[in-house]
Each structure stands twice: as structure tokens, then as C-alpha cells.
Amino acid sequence: MKFNEVLNNYISILNSSSKEVAIKSNISESVISRYRRGKRKPKVNGKQLNDLINGLYEISVSKNMSIKKEEIEKNINDSLNEEDFNYETFSKNLNLLIKALNININDMSKYIMFDSSYISRIRYNKSKPSNPSELANKITNYVMSKYSNNLDILNSLIKDELNVDNMYNKLFYWLTSNQDYGEENISNFLNKLDSFDLNNYIKSIKFDELKVPSIPFYRAKSKTYYGIEEMKKGELDFFKATVLSKNNDDIFMCSDMPMEDMAEDIDFGKKWMFGIALCLKKGLHLNIIHNLDRPFNEMMLGLESWIPIYMTGQIRPYYFKNLKNTVYNHLNYVSGIAALNGECITGEHNKGKYTLITDKKDLEYYKTKSKLLLNKANSLMDIYTSYNSEFIQFKNSDYNIHENRKRYIYSLPLFTISEELLKKILKRNKVSSEDVKKILEYRKEELLNVNNLLKTNTIVDNLFIYDEKDFKDKKITLSLENIFYDKAIYYNYNEYCEHLKNTLKFNENYIVNELKERTFDNISVSIVGKKYVVISKKQTPIIHFVIRHPKLVDAINNFKALVKED
Length: 566
Description:
With 566 residues, the protein is α+β, with helices and mostly antiparallel strands. It is 50% helix and 14% strand.
């Protein structure tokens, strides 16, 4: 049985639904839906697969069914392993590999003991190998023996960080898989942004009920912490000192200390996040330099965990370019009242040391140090949570970037609607005269900017086109997140059709690609050449992320769930 057949069978046996599986597995309902239709499948041994298995087992336990977790795991893994080999992907990736490394076909053929003409036919998908896994194995070993020094090229090709220990597994998987390595991580990141509801999150952690404690005359004392257990206490003491002080200066955080030991302690993780939550409740802002000099999947998992914090708009994330350090690890936290400085030898985290500093003179040194580090850092992403001067400045500069654009949007763009139709929709939705004026001005300005951009560049909008049946099941809204308009304004079907007609004939340099299925419900993705990606979330609160890290931009640009319908 195929993977989707096995999954559907379990859902039927468990008398469950896609929604219940999504909740229990912590996987978006849209991804579960694609799994069930055979449109996607999880990576073997990946986090998403493990979460799915755990979710199905949890449902079986809650319904008192005698289904063993090992049984679910075996059946699902067997179904994935039995899937037909993707010859098309193998040919495509083999060709990319040969071109990227400028491999001599004759040389490789001799090494792997295959006829060169046979390899060429496979390369161009004109022939299928009788034993594809064996061939992939030999090609992987050849690349490792001849091109292990070309890590930059290989990293760029498979979008991950290779080293001596992981090269074989990652290269073999990339060569034979229909998903890029790291595809699942990008999927998780975008789907979490799409489904994340800040208001529900605030309720779940009882953020509104949090009270920032105050102790009269409390002042933390300088202290030194040795070993992992004491170091954990040091981080919590830093947050305690910061929250209890009357100082409201920004917090600075920068660390490349190993996180594995800390992450294993779930209780510590909850206390750490509670410390962050109290700092946010106090109204403090965080400047954080993320350590992105790590494997792509680890980097994405780290960023995914910070999404709730990003959504508050109280964080400014940064990163260092080309940071290479294989000897020392460091930690630097600074607030208005305290600093936490840490260090260890790489690989010897358990022998590390943290120092909490409260002395005024020493504290000034660490504040200066944090400013110097920020000056050397690059913006990981700009985060906009309101229609302020900073966002207006970004939008103005954005339209002056003459690059071709590729967008994935949840609704029709406002610049293609006629003024008459827009007025009609606003009137029917009983929008106030003040808001009508604001929306009309935005539409006029957007139209002017887009027409100017289209004189030299193209905009390709990928979107799902709704039919009349869809309107019975779903309310379709105008796209107004660029002016942070958070009141839903709905189309009726005739209005939507008229706007669609205008969209399809808007401009010869404006291209519409119809998607066969909805990509996202609450976010739009705009890719501006290779410069940056803008992710805009319409669901209250409205928020815009401008991602600038080259590896992330490239990964999103090539994310198969986005490009497959192009």
C-alpha cells in the first residue's frame, strides 16, 4: 500500500479526521490533507513523520484502541519505502550534480564501472537504471572521493551544510529524493506562520494573566556558574534580575553555545520561555543575533521556535556573515541592569562557565560590547507590525527595486481592481467614509507604483481561483494587509468574478498562474529576485516579515510546494 492509503486507512480505523490528526501531530491541516490525497509525503526519519506517528498513536490511546505505536511506525515506514523510485528526480539531480561540479562523464563511468553512454541516457531521463539505489550509492561514493573539497558548491546545490560525517547520507538522499533536503523545514516554517494565531497562543500560555513581579529594592548580585546545571540557573537569574528591575532598556542576546544539553531539559525550557514572556510583558524589546552557522535543518528549527516571539513585534533578529569558529563558544546577554557572559571550549559544554555581572562599570563594558556586535551583524529579517514611518519607507524602497517578482497570494491584488468596483464592495460591506478614503488612496498609490515597476520588470502572481461553490464554503476577503487594515471586507461571487476579469487582462508584464490548490490561507509570499522575501500575514494581528538571509531567500524561492504549479 502507498503512504496515503496507509494513512487514510488508519484515520478510518480510528474514526478520526484530518483536523484531529493535525492537532495531535502539530502538523497543519493543509499538509495532512495533501498527505491524504497523495500530493506529498513526509521525509523518511524526519521530524514531521515522527510527529505524525505519535499523533496517530495518541488518538488510538485516547479512544482506548489496542493499536501499538510500533505497528503504526512499521506500516507507515514500509509504505514510504515501497513507494516507486522517482526516476525523473534522480535524472534531474544527477544532471545538476554533473554540471555544478563539472564532472567528466568518462572519468565517473570508469570509477563506478558503468558505460558512459548509459550514464548519459539516465542523465537525460532517456533510460531507467535497473538498480537505481546501487547506482546512486556508487555516484555518491565517487563524488565523496573526488569532490569532497568542493563543499561550497555542494552546500549551495542541496541547500544544506555538509561535512565528512554527514556527506554520504545527505548527498544520497538529495540525489534520490523528490524533496530537497531541508524542504520539510521550510514547509514547517511557512505552515506555522500560516496557521499561527497570536491571540490563541496568548490564551494558551495565559500571557494576559501574567503579572510582572516587583520586589522593593531587589538588586541581583554578581555571581559565577560552573557546569551545565549551574549555567541554566545563571540564565534564569539574568531574566529574574531584568524583570524585577525598574530599568526598561532593550535586551541584547547573542550566543553560539551548544543547545542540545539545555534543550533536553523540558522543565528548564519552559522556565526560560516564561522568563522571555515576562520580559515582553514588561514591554522590553529584544535584539538577538541568531547563530546560523549550523546545518540548515537546525537553523530552521531554531527560527521556527521563535515564531511566537517574532509575532509580538518586540524582537529584532540579526546574524553574522561567514562566521567560522571551531574552538570557542560564547554567550552574551545584556539588559539595563545585568549582563550574563558565558564561555566554553567547543565540545566541552559541561565544563563551561557563566558569570552574572551587575557592577556598573563592568556593565557599561558589556553594553558597549553588545553595540559593537550589533554594528557587525546583518539584519536577518525586518518585522513590521504597524503602518508607521518605517514600514512606509520600506514600501517606497521596495518599489524602487527593479527586479522580477514572483508572488503567492491568497486573494486578488488590489491594484487590478477598478475604482468603481472597489467603491461598490466597500459600500456593501458598510465601510466608514474615513476608511473608504484610506483604502481608495492606497489602491491609487499601489496602481501607480506597480505600473512603474512593470515598465522594466515582470510580476508573476500565483493564486488559487475560486468558483461559485467555494463561495458557499468560504468567505473571500480583499487583500488589505499592506495598510494594516484588520477588518474583513468580503467579496460576493459576482464582484470576485469582475475583479478576476480585470486581473487577467491587467498588463502584458503582469502574469497570472492559476494554482490547482490553495497554497496558504493567511499568508502571501513575495519573492523579489534574489534580494529578499516578504511574508505577509493577514490574520490579526497583521504582520510583515522581510527575510534577507541569502540561504533562506534561496530556499523559499526553490521551495517545491510553491514552485510545483508554475
